[in-house]
Each structure stands twice: as structure tokens, then as C-alpha cells.
TrEMBL record:
Name of protein: Membrane-bound lytic murein transglycosylase F
Keyword terms, alphabetized: Signal
Highest rank taxon of the organism: Bacteria
Family assignment from sequence similarity: Belongs to the bacterial solute-binding protein 3 family.
InterPro entries: Solute-binding_3/MltF_N (IPR001638)
Transmembrane regions: none
A matching Pfam family: SBP_bac_3
Length: 566
């Protein structure tokens, strides 16, 4: 199905750099590594490993620079050091750390510098290579420790975290008197985790401690698949791995909170000042920072604050790139305004409305359908920019060709969703059609996943959502198109911001957006079998949209192909 509206032409690839994990290193007394021979990296192809957006440092035509920002500016490059991570090629949700790397790119751009991301050989090499002049900055959620503070200067803290002992889900909770004989604890060498692990092992004779060079994200995977019994990481690392590996739990929380920050060489006050200015943009706004101003306030602030959700159609991480149909649209709109883009992740429709009302974001862009259920006092929809038909989702090969074939079947539908009303309509028309309501906290792709996993019989979804899921779930199909329930997608803003709403509507209506609509739709939702109109302009089937009622809510692939999600 073709989208009904146009998108902006100012698209460019969102090659934003990803670090799958924090590199919480302490400096200890590590000496600076010997400088490696210069390599003609520009002419070599880095191996397909780890963080695919980074260049292995041994393949880069590197140089030694230990000066402050003025020296870095003369070089024209800001070299960001990252640790190797064999988990970076997984499909996962985007994290706060990915946003920080994006901020490093933005900072480099503002300083007129090119950001170069260099992957060091081992985790413990980060601080020594920084101090020896092989890099200029570490933005890897380093834990701020007294040892590290003697070796580098830290920025304003970016976050707080706690340190956890992680085990398999079915492992008994560990206490001070637990007998851990025969168990194995693995930790990453040169980290604060290693120091904590040594103290913990000393209290539990018989526990085997293995200190390894592997990234602690990989060690979490080892625990998940049974290669080790325990590891020690921070809470952010565990949250990340739980996105793609179940069966882990925080078995024990070590006392105290830890701060994370960016790091530079000592005697680099100007570079540190520039970093601190960027870090301030990452801080979650407090009540005094919340802003509900219209377009002029956004332009003055220089930042467009947008909320979206982690979803293959909106905002996600794949092989070191932040991607997503909505993300690219937001990026283009921010470029049109000449401002930076700041992303906040929300999960439920209630969260989006709350973020808008409380002034934490300016716009919500999350493939949200224009429905009365999504209307809320104080918010307004933009003109729809895309529409998609709705149908019955089944497992491939299931013979559902007409409404009559739904007799005796069961539809799984989310509570309080727009599909629920349509399901009730179908139930009145089709004899013996059963409804099963599933949790409202599930999103549509999770419901489709229930069908794919044989946990649900059928469900209702729009074609767009099904196409996204088919990139990774070949077993599902839109078996039957319905002649009702067509979904129109729009952005959501505060009703009190008419200038912003008008600007967004003009953005979507711009004649220059035809080509980009086709490109982005094909990239994220299409296939080579998609029948595209070539008329040069998309037909405007929807003229405008508005706030739909007073109801209150509670809460690299080729350009012509969609992303191949694992």
C-alpha cells in the first residue's frame, strides 16, 4: 500500500555511532602503550567485527597529539576512542549511550571538526591510549573512580548507575553466607568491576574468579547461555542485554551509586569546557528546565525535543547505526529548522501525551495513528503524512480469505487499542468469532509476535506494522485486507503551539518531498514487489487533521531495500 502523503527531501543517512556497552575502566598504574606503526588505513577495509561504525585503531593512519582543543582544531579531527564489542552488530533498542555518541558527533560538527571513531585493541587500552595522544576523547560511560580521576579529567557526570551481580534467572539469590563453591564469576579486566569482583570472591571461598579481556556485554551473554554463573556489570549494561537475551537477573546490588562521565587528557581545559557544554544537553530536564514554548522558543533554544519509541519503524539500532523512518523524518525536520535533534524514548501512548503536556518534549513522532482514542485535551495532530490499510494477521499458509473464514477463530487484540473497536464490529458480523484481549502494555509488534509464536490465533494490524515485522518474521502475513480501519499516521504536538503545528504541516506538504517519501517508505516498509506510483506527486487523500476530541488518556542495506533485521 502506498503512503498517502509526502515526506521531506532533505534525507541523509543516519550513520550515528554506537557503543553497545559502557567502558567503565579504572586507570590503575597502566603505562602508555607503545605507539603502533602508522597504517594506510584509509586504503584498507576494516574487518567485519565489533562496532561497525568504528575503525580499528591499527588500521587508521593515526598521529600523536596530546594538546588541548586548539591543537585538536589544527588537526581538523576529533578522535573518539571506543572499546571493541562483538555484540555491536545485534539488532537492539537504542540506548542513552548511543545518544551520547551522537552528541559527540554534533559537538565535533559545531567545532568544525570531523569525528573519527577509533576502536582500541582491548578495554584496558582506552585511558592509556588517550593519554599517549592516540585519541582525544572517551565518551563511553566511564565510571568515575578515584584511580581514574588521577589519570584523566572527567566531564560533568552524564548519569548515575549501580553495580550488580548478575546471574541466570533461576539462580538462587546470593547472600553473605552463600556457598558458591564450584561457581564461576567472570569480569572484564582493568575495570572497576574487577576490583569489586576480587573483594566479592575473597568473601566467598571456592568461587572461581576469571578476569577476561572480553567486553562485559559479551560476558553477560555468556551467563545467559550458561558458560559462566555470574558476572558483575552496571545496571545500564544489564538493561541493554535484556533487550535481546532473556533469562538474566540482578542477583545482588553492591552498595553505593556510581557516576558516569566522558574523559579527556589532563591539561585540556578548553576541550573539557566544550564537552561539558555538550553534556548539559544530555541531562534530563528538571522542573525549572521544562519548556512549553512554541516554534520561536525552539529556534531560540536551538534544540528540537522529540519523543519516539524503540521500534523498527521508528527508532532502532542496527550494526552501529541509528535508524528508523520517524527518526529520519525528525532529523530532516530539525535540519530544516537549523536546530539539533534531541530524542526521548517513550513506550506507551500515555507517556507521549504526558511528555508533551509536561513540557519535556515538543513533538511526538512514533507512527501514531490518528484516532479518537489517541486524542487528548491539550494536544493536536499534524496533517497525516502516511496511511496504511488494516487487515487480519495470520501465520503464513493459514487460509483466511474472507470474513466467513474467521468463524470459529480467535482474535487477539490489545485492551484499549483502536483495533479493539474494530474487533467488536467483526464479532457482530461473524458468527462464533472469539475475542481474546491481551495486555495494553504490549505494542503491536509484540502482539504480532504472539501470532508468529503460535501463542495467539489471529490479530488485527495495519499493513505497515506487518511489513516491518516480516523483515524478521517470515512466518506472519496480512492474510485478509479489511475494507475499514485504515490507519492514518501523524505527529502530535501541544495544542498551544500553533506555529509549530503549522511549520510541521508545511514540512509534510512541501512539493520537494516526493522522492524522499518513496525512498524512506521503500527503505523501511517496502519490498521489490511494491507497486509504486511514478506520478511525481503523491495524491493528497487527507487535507488536514486536528485534535480529535476531549478524551483524556492514561497512559549497509541498499537504498532500494528495507533493512534486514535479524
Amino acid at each position: 500500500m502506498m503512503p498517502s502523503r509526502r515526506l521531506p527531501l532533505l534525507w541523509y543517512p543516519a550513520l550515528l555511532l554506537a557503543l553497545v556497552s559502557g567502558c567503565e575502566r579504572q586507570s590503575g598504574d597502566q603505562g602508555a602503550p607503545q605507539e603502533k606503526p602508522r597504517a594506510a588505513a584509509e586504503s584498507k577495509q576494516p574487518p567485519d567485527r565489533g562496532n561497525l561504525a568504528a575503525i580499528p585503531i591499527e588500521l587508521y593512519d593515526n598521529y600523536t597529539e596530546t594538546g588541548d582543543l586548539d591543537a585538536v582544531e589544527k588537526r581538523g579531527k576529533l578522535r573518539l576512542l571506543v572499546d571493541p564489542s562483538h555484540s555491536a552488530a545485534i539488532h537492539r533498542e537504542t540506548t542513552q549511550q548511543d545518544v551520547e555518541i551522537d552528541q559527540a558527533r554534533l559537538m565535533a560538527r559545531q567545532l568544525g571538526l570531523e569525528l573519527v571513531v577509533l576502536e582500541v585493541p582491548q578495554f584496558a587500552d582506552l585511558i592509556p591510549m588517550l593519554n599517549s595522544g592516540q585519541g582525544d576523547l572517551i565518551a563511553s560511560n566511564l565510571l568515575v573512580t578515584s584511580d581514574a580521576e588521577r589519570a584523566v579529567d572527567f566531564s560533568t557526570p552524564t548519569a548515575e548507575t549501580v553495580v550488580l551481580l548478575v546471574s541466570a534467572q533461576d539462580t538462587e539469590d546470593v547472600g553473605d553466607q552463600s556457598d558458591l563453591s564450584g561457581k564461576t564469576l567472570v569480569v572484564t579486566a582493568g575495570t572497576e568491576f574487577e576490583r569489586i569482583a576480587r573483594e566479592f570472591a575473597a568473601k566467598h571461598p571456592g568461587l572461581e574468579l576469571k578476569v577476561r579481556d572480553d567486553n562485559h556485554i559479551d560476558l553477560l551473554v555468556d551467563v545467559a547461555i550458561g558458560r559462566a554463573d555470574f558476572t558483575i556489570v552496571d545496571s545500564q549494561a544489564l538493561e541493554l542485554v535484556l533487550q535481546f537475551r532473556k533469562g538474566l537477573k540482578a542477583n545482588f546490588q553492591f552498595p553505593g551509586a556510581h557516576k558516569t562521565a566522558w574523559a579527556v587528557r589532563k591539561q585540556s581545559p578548553r576541550l573539557l569546557q566544550a564537552i561539558n557544554a555538550q553534556v548539559r544537553q544530555l541531562q534530563r530536564p528538571g522542573p525549572e528546565q521544562l519548556a512549553r514554548g512554541d516554534l520561536d522558543a525552539i529556534l531560540q533554544r536551538g534544540v528540537l525535543r522529540a519523543a519516539t519509541r524503540n521500534h523498527p519503524g521508528s527508532y532502532y539500532m542496527w550494526k552501529g547505526e541509528i535508524r528508523g523512518f520517524e527518526y529520519n523524518l525528525l532529523e530532516n525536520y530539525a535540519r530544516k529548522l537549523g536546530v539539533q535533534l534531541e530524542i526521548t524514548i517513550a513506550r506507551t501512548d500515555e507517556d507521549f501525551v504526558r511528555l508533551l503536556r509536561e513540557g519535556e518534549v515538543d513533538v511526538c513522532a512514533c507512527l501514531m495513528a490518528v484516532t479518537p482514542a489517541h486524542g487528548a485535551a491539550g494536544v493536536a495532530f499534524s496533517d497525516p503524512y502516511l496511511e496504511s490499510p488494516t487487515g487480519i494477521v495470520a501465520r503464513r499458509g493459514d487460509k483466511v480469505k474472507s470474513l466467513g473464514d474467521l468463524s470459529g477463530r480467535t482474535l487477539c487484540v490489545r485492551r484499549a487499542s483502536s483495533q479493539l473497536g474494530l474487533a467488536h464490529e467483526l464479532q457482530r458480523e461473524v458468527d462464533k468469532l472469539e475475542l481474546r484481549e491481551v495486555g495494553a502494555e504490549l505494542d503491536i509488534r509484540e502482539v504480532i509476535g504472539l501470532v508468529a509464536g503460535n501463542e495467539c490465533d489471529l490479530t488485527i494490524a495495519d499493513e505497515l506494522s506487518v511489513q516491518v515485522e516480516q523483515a524478521s518474521r517470515e512466518e506472519v502475513t496480512l492474510a485478509l485486507h479489511l475494507q475499514r480501519g485504515k490507519r492514518r499516521y501523524a505527529w502530535l504536538v501541544r495544542e498551544e503551539n500553533p506555529k509549530l503545528l503549522q511549520s510541521i504541516n508545511e514540512f509534510f506538504a512541501s512539493p520537494s518531498t516526493d522522492e524522499t517519501l518513496q525512498e524512506l517508505y521503500q527503505r523501511y516498509f517496502g519490498s521489490q514487489r511494491q507497486a509504486w506510483q511514478k506520478s511525481g506527486r503523491w495524491e493528497k487523500t487527507v487535507k488536514s487533521s486536528r485534535s480529535l476530541g476531549p478524551q483524556h488518556m492514561r497512559q549497509a542495506t541498499p537504498d532500494s531495500m528495507p533493512p534486514q533485521l535479524p
